[in-house]
Design a protein that fits this description.
Layout (H helix, E strand, L loop, with lengths): L4 E4 L10 H7 L11 H22 L5 H15 L5 H11 L8 H10 L3 E6 L3 H11 L7 E4 L10 H11 L6 E5 L2 H10 L2 E5 L15 E3 L5 H4 L4
Parallel strand pairs: 1-2, 1-4, 2-3, 4-5, 5-6
Helix pairs in contact: 1-2, 1-4, 2-3
Length: 228
């Protein structure tokens, strides 16, 4: 069946999750943080994901903003950084994450071809709306779907079902795109066509399912969706 709907994870897929730490490190007076920002960014993202998985497993759901703060606190402590002002600055910048350079044109191409476009994310609605507004891509998205409507994080099947319910489509009409290999693989199990955006060249996750496509960036998404 032809692709009618293109759905994207948000953080790390459309929006650069390292941007907050990178931009903070470049600000005057933060030279010391400049020595740590890459480790902090990596630890922050890893713990953010791990905490979402653990909460899903044990049924202790909370919104993604709390998970994001918990992850940052662990990352800062792991680098020996006890700086309340830096913490607040990093959290503020997280609401203004930059989109990857190819994102606006890619989404506009999909919309011009008449496809449905949406975000499907662990992020809370207010966080996602902030990122969409900051990146200026709201006019090329039909919807922003958050796990908050089902009260559990990915990769629970109820999260992927949100796409089918919103767009009244079959699973094999959906191209789902994520920067997380486990997310793209789990969506294969659900029935989506999937693309893993592997910007950093990571190994494939050892899971029963594999993404249909592995990409360096999002430039070729319209081709995968059948846009001529």
């Amino acid at each position: 069946m032809a692709i009618t709907t293109c759905v994207f994870d948000a953080y790390g897929t459309l929006f650069d999750v390292a941007a907050a730490a990178r931009e903070a490190a470049a600000e005057p007076g933060r030279e010391a943080f400049g020595q740590h920002w890459q480790k902090v960014a990596n630890d922050w993202r890893l713990k953010q994901l791990q905490y979402s998985w653990l909460r899903a497993i044990i049924g202790a759901h909370t919104d993604f903003w709390e998970v994001t703060q918990n992850g940052l606190d662990w990352a800062l402590e792991n680098s020996g950084l006890d700086d309340a002002e830096l913490r607040e600055r990093l959290l503020a910048l997280y609401w203004e994450l930059s989109a990857y350079p190819e994102v606006p044109k890619m989404l506009a191409t999909l919309k011009a071809a008449g496809l449905n476009t949406a975000i499907l994310s662990n992020g809370s609605p207010d966080m996602l709306n902030g990122a969409v507004d900051s990146a200026g891509v709201g006019d090329v998205l039909d919807d922003v779907l958050s796990v908050e409507s089902v009260g559990i994080f990915k990769p629970d099947r109820k999260v992927y079902q949100l796409v089918n319910d919103r767009f009244n489509c079959a699973s094999d009409e959906v191209l789902f795109v994520s920067s997380n290999g486990w997310d793209a693989a789990s969506a294969v199990e659900f029935g989506f066509h999937t693309a893993w955006v592997n910007r950093s060249g990571e190994p494939m996750d050892r899971l029963p399912w594999k993404p249909h496509h592995v990409l360096n960036d999002l430039t070729t998404i319209p081709d995968l969706a059948g846009v001529k």
